[in-house]
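Notebook, student rotation project (T.W.).
Task set for the rotation: take a protein with a known small-molecule partner, predict the structure of the complex, and write up what can be learned from the model alone. Partner molecule chosen: zinc ion. Sequence and SMILES entered below by T.W., checked by me.
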Amino acid sequence: MQSFDVVEWGKPLQSALKATPVPIGTEVLVRIKYCGVCHSDVHIRDGYFDLGGGKKFRMADRGMTLPVTLGHEPYGTVIAAGPDAKDVPLGQDMLVFPWTGCGSCARCLEGMDNHCMAPRYLGVQRPGGYADHLIVPHARYLVDVKGLDPAWAATLACSGLTTYSAAVKLLPLPKDEWVLVLGAGGLGLSAVAMLRALGHERIVVADLDPAKFAAAKAAGAAATVNAGAADALEQLKAATGGMIYGALDLVGAAATFQLAYATLRKGGRYIVVGLFGGEVSISIVPTIQRAIMIQGSYVGSPQELRDVVALAKAGKIKALPVETRPGERISETLDQLKAGTLIGRVVAQMA
Ligand SMILES: [Zn+2]
Ligand SMILES: [Zn+2]
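Predicted structure of the complex:
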């Protein structure tokens, strides 16, 4: 099999040829057709996330040893299964839920793999989908996406699931209240599509790059604001007529945290998803007096992925523009994601 691996932190991926794995136990083997190229792989390839204050969350200190195969939006054909695998859709094309846990703790057993304290994520702790073959630990992580465009369906495994899970933490809100979406990259556009799919229309998108506003409007945003402008807060208030009830932060930087926090009305909710990194200090008293909720949201559960796929099959989610590129261009795509120059999503075509 062929894979595209991180061999040295921060360096371009390298193509590798290795033996195709044989599934054991409950495992299934998937021949990968598509794998979305996600922004979080930029950080993982660099080898760290920025914790702020000069501190870093280093992948090498968290049990990742090189070489590794990234890629956590895999889609492909189930071609083999281990002797203990049951109900395996052999020969069928399936989306793979990548956020697999240890499989045995209380959270995993209740279907909340994404809250497992010993995660075994595909494309992070286990080999991922930047390869033509992938081992999946159990058939319960396969999701049928028949009827959806397969390249777009691949992106539901991370950006779709992540934004859906964040949106259901925020909603329902009164229909006439505004939701602020911070960031108009792939995750931001997906967040707009999820909010719309869940029935919320008053969405204002803020980004540093006005070139992304047309895509935000096309995804369903009602208004856009240049977050880099000196008067961004005033622009936001002018666009929405006042304070914001809910904010989804798909950037997750100190500046977006502060902008969201400053705009929240009493009872406002701020869900932070983006992993740009950094740190903020906030005053405790106004957080209490304004009854503000601050919540982190990380990917989602297997059931939430099935829920988001059901919404997509019902035609409720507007598909984002997806460009397919060969696996050899994953590295270049990660460079563009890092530079912030991509509009919409890129999905690697693996086989
Ligand atoms: Zn991702
Ligand atoms: Zn677990």
